[in-house]
Amino acid sequence: MTKPERSVPGPTDIERERANLYLPGEHFRYPFLGWIQLEMKEAEAIEGEAPHEALFLVLPLLHLRDLLAISQVCRSLRRAVDDDVLPWLNLVVGEPLNRRIFDDVLIRVTSKAQGRLSTLALIGCNRISDAGLLSLVASNPFISKLHVPGCTGLTPDGIVAAVEVLSQEGRRLTSLHINGIYNLNPDHLQMLRPYLLIPSSSEDQGPDQLYHDFIYLSRPTYKKSTNRPMDVDICPKCNQVRMVFDCPREACRMRPQARECRGCYECIGRCVECGTCLTDDDEDEQQFDAACSDRLCSKCWLKLPKCNYCNRPYCRRHAREQISSPVGSAGFLCSSCYFQHVQQ
């Protein structure tokens, strides 16, 4: 007669949750939120239990995706996030949420500010339309910073209409970023400038705007501290509405033709590291090609580590493309040298 096997009890619900402490997410995970969820289960059972007061000091410092993730932990944290107005006064929508934000979702999120929204930064939100933006600013008339770089679903006329709504009753915007909006022309800039706190003349618009501070032109980002109230201008070289950069080199500032090296990124070549102007007829500065096809000045070229084969460096934003050298040698290889010398 065989002895019956003893049944082993399966894992409890709490053990299952401790084995998987990551909240589901398509682009990001929060391991600490799993522990918070377990600790808050007991608190939810007690009626009237509220989060610690220190939580309300942390919420205004979190990004939008962090606020949305915390609100999914439990009912208590959801009420804390929804009832606190301060975290929603400065709304920045960036990656990865920008690809999933539509007009109705954005209006629902901004409604948490209760009409007191101060900063609205939509970074690459190409699914936002003119009608959605106009409806949003109508319910939030106190917006002073409007950043919509890379929002290709918006049109210049829609931005002008939104700025006009925000400028009612004598109010003016302190910052407007519209780089990456299609079909902008000088007439649109002339209509927008009276609504901003900047001089009407394009010759004096505040501190210099440097190329290496805005190096990610194809991937717009949000900067809390910006040099100029408007990020685009009329390029003196091609008369197109683009981001216009100044030269940080002292020699260019001292000579009478200092304004000659001021232009957009297509008219004036610049060092990707320091923003210095690079021209073929410049005898004072020699330009070098990086392994990532960007251009570098001689000073920046000397500072950066080089490929073991071609002696070309990667700029800092492409440094992750470096390939470690084979075992027994130091340094790195660029991608082209790796496939040419190692793979063959």
Descriptive overview:
This protein is of the alpha/beta class. It has 12 helices and 14 strands. A 4-stranded parallel β-sheet has the order 1-2-3-4, with no helix packed on it. The protein has a two-stranded antiparallel ribbon with strand order 5-6. Strand 5 and strand 6 form a beta hairpin. It is globular, with a radius of gyration of 26 Å.
Which term fits the overall shape?
globular
How would you characterize the largest beta sheet?
A: 4 strands, parallel
Helical coverage, percent range: 25-40%
Strand order within the widest sheet? 1-2-3-4
Residue ranges: pLDDT <50 for 5 or more in a row?
A: 6-12, 14-40, 42-48, 199-206
List the helices and strands and how they pair.
Elements: H1 13-19, H2 32-45, H3 55-58, H4 64-70, H5 75-83, E1 90-93, H6 103-110, E2 119-122, H7 130-139, E3 145-147, H8 156-166, E4 175-177, H9 186-192, E5 233-234, E6 241-242, E7 244-245, H10 250-254, E8 263-264, E9 269-270, E10 277-278, E11 287-289, E12 295-297, H11 298-303, E13 323-324, E14 332-333, H12 335-342
Parallel strand pairs: 1-2, 2-3, 3-4
Antiparallel strand pairs: 5-6, 7-8, 9-10, 11-12, 13-14
Helix pairs in contact: 6-7, 7-8
List its traits.
globular
Quickly describe the structure.
By secondary structure, this protein is an alpha/beta fold. The protein is 28% helix and 10% strand.
